[in-house]
Amino acid sequence: MADRMDELDRKILLQLQQDTTPSIEEIARSVGSSKTPVWNRIRKMRDRGIIKREVAILDADVLGFEACFFVLIRTSEHDAEWQNTFLQALRDRAEVQEAHRLAGDIDYVLKVRVPNARAYDTFYQALISEVKIHNVTALLSMEEIKSTTALPL
């Protein structure tokens, strides 16, 4: 897919990864093109699935979600029924911002955003009441040093 993108596509995507609110005219000006080609390229990149969706990125701290935990999960269960139950439990919890299945000693890592440690404990207690988990380690992020959704085009 990336091999079908040219330099103008990359410039447009770099611009959109930073901010989707400028008009097509402003984006075209910033990437050195005109409106119609930029609009057509954006539409084609949406159609091809390169641009999945456009969202507003909210400030978690301002909204009171000041605690970010990275949760490392080890399980002794690996059957399909357990996995389906576990994945559904994650999907049902808005606190889980990211979930990844890993290779290595840890089976899953979650990024969980909550107001405070008490809210994390409520999340944790609810999760383990639904799903059998062998070991859970929660790591509290003391400071977010870098966070981006931008890909290195």
Walk me through this protein's architecture.
With 153 residues, the protein is an alpha+beta fold. It has two domains: 2-47, Orthogonal Bundle (Arc Repressor Mutant, subunit A); 67-140, Lrp/AsnC effector binding domain/regulation of amino acid metabolism (RAM) domain (Alpha-Beta Plaits). The chain is 39% helix and 18% strand. It contains five helices and four strands, in the order αααβαββαβ. The protein has helices at 7-18, 24-31, 35-47, 80-91, 117-130, and strands spanning 67-74, 96-101, 108-114, 135-140. It has a four-stranded antiparallel beta sheet. Strand 2 and strand 3 form a beta hairpin. Helix 1 packs across helix 2 (24-31). The chain is elongated and about 55 Å long. This is Transcriptional Regulator, AsnC family protein. It holds the Pfam family AsnC_trans_reg. One of its GO terms (cellular component) is cytosol.
Sheet with the most strands, sense and barrel status: 4 strands, antiparallel
Q: How would you sum up the global shape?
A: elongated
* CATH fold naming of the largest domain: Alpha-Beta Plaits
Report mean pLDDT, rounded to a whole number.
96
Unreliable segments of 5+ consecutive residues = none
CATH architecture of the largest domain: 2-Layer Sandwich
Order of helices and strands: HHHEHEEHE
Order of strands across the widest beta sheet? 2-3-1-4
Q: What is the tally of helical segments?
A: 5
Domain HTH asnC-type: 5-66
Protein name: Transcriptional Regulator, AsnC family protein
GO molecular function, one term: sequence-specific DNA binding
Organism: Pseudooceanicola batsensis (strain ATCC BAA-863 / DSM 15984 / KCTC 12145 / HTCC2597) (Oceanicola batsensis)
